[in-house]
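@channel sequence for tomorrow's demo:
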Amino acid sequence: MDFSLDEDQLLIQETFRKFCEKELSYEYVRWMDENVDFPPDDLWQKFVDIGLMSGPVPVEYGGQGLSLVDTMIAYEQLCKASMSIALAVGVTNGFGVRFINELGTAEQKEAYLPLLAQGKMKTCMALTEPAGGTDILGALSTFAEDRGDTWVINGQKVFITGAHAADYLFTVCKTERDAKKKTMSWSTIMVPREAPGVTIRKIAKISCHHCESVEIFYDNVEVPKANTIGTRGNAFYEIMTVLNPERIGVAMMGVGIIAAIYEQCLRYVQERNAFGGPIARFQSLQTYLADMYINLENARNLTYKAAWLCDNGKPYHLEATMAKLVAAEGARHAGTFGAEIFGGYGICNDYPVSMFLRDAYQIQFSPISNEMSRNMLMQFQGLPKSWA
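structure tokens (generated this afternoon):
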């Protein structure tokens, strides 16, 4: 068993570490958090230039064909700098590329994967609805009516990350009225954001300001049948090829938050003096830091293990769920006690801890709540289903 990175992976890590130091300083990240709702175009182009957007796209479509582990090595550096940036990149690299590459037709792959690799196309996934997110099977009501060569969509989505900046919304809809099971009634449809009848409204929230979440309203939105992704009526099962890797990506966001706060706090306790010396000597603060360090190691190991299992064609749904859970709770712990370590400065915007603390709350329930994660893990261990 070898946990070390190879030479190529070390190069990826160092390249993106230096990139983030140069292009994603906290001063700039803070400016984005206060002034924009999505990364500016010039920054997006820098992501393209360094190969971030082409990374997961297969070589035959103009990408690099990187593994999920390799992608996560680069992604970890982004997550340490800004969870908003990680989200903005993830909704295209994680959703757009996987939907098209895993479920798209040959024609769809030829048309869209090169655009994704070139950074000329942004995407999001529109799944969650006002009636529920974790209970999406019971909550989903957005309906696409079959009108021959077109779908006509009516409904509403909520908490959709980056939809206001996306070119296409991968919208999960009901398409079958008489399906024997709810799980056989969904289809995924690629909806142009600027299609007539699509209305988007931003949601005011405390977290991830430079990659906003929005509501989407569909009012008789007509979309060609050619925009169907995957098999009609089978989206509930097919989107697992997107949702399970999403948990790995979100886990890495938690890893990034823990790492960023831990590094800032470790430095701060050695610089800050109180009661005649550095506060690093205080037992309570050492306990906070030790717990952060342990949580970081556990979250990082689980996240990379889940990514490795995915790359090697092995079942990874349990590890992906555990990674998201451990990383999310570790991020919240780091944010809470990081703010304690910084005292009054911990809630001031001049210091990054306050931003990471706010952002950490977004991954406690997204893309799956921590409580449901625990229930699912035990269901897969053979215990009774606890939410039916």
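heads up for whoever presents: The two ends are 40 Å apart (CA to CA).
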